[in-house]
Structure formats: structure tokens, C-alpha cells
Design goal:
CATH class: Mainly Alpha
Structural class: alpha+beta
Number of helices: 3
Shape: elongated
CATH architecture: Orthogonal Bundle
Radius of gyration: 13 Å
Strand order of the largest sheet: 1-3-2
Number of domains: 1
Helix content: 40-55%
Order of helices and strands: HEHHEE
Amino acid sequence: MKPVEPRPFADPQAAARKLLELAAGIEPINGRIHIEKINAPFLSKNGCRGTGAEFGAGIRYAVEKGWLELHESGTYVRLLVPRP
């Protein structure tokens, strides 16, 4: 049997915090951060190695908590918490 590695972003709060960290490192254009700017590093094998489901859960969690605003088209977010 192959051992299962623990998923660091299985918890939506952990995924949301990582997404906020990624978003804070990107210079917004007109206050907007294009979703692919945080999606690609989150899913990247060389980066976070999160999954699509973890990304979605993290975005939903961040929106519910008022940390991010997701545009209805899903193409960009706005960071609603102060940058560190």
C-alpha cells in the first residue's frame, strides 16, 4: 500500500490564507487581481501543489469571511484586507 501524504490545504481556512498570501504579493491593476495570477501558483507542482477543489474551497472561504471579493464573472478578485 502506498502511504498518503497529508494535504496542507485540505482545510479551507488554510487554503484561503495561502490564497491571501499569494494575492498580497501581486500588484493589482485598477484594484483587480486576475484569478490566474493566484490560481497558477496555488496549483503548480513547483509551488503550493494545491488541488482545484482546494482552490475553490479556499476562494469560497475567503469570500465568506470578507477577505476577498470575487467578481461575478470569476475572472478577478479584489483583496479586501490590508496588505502586510
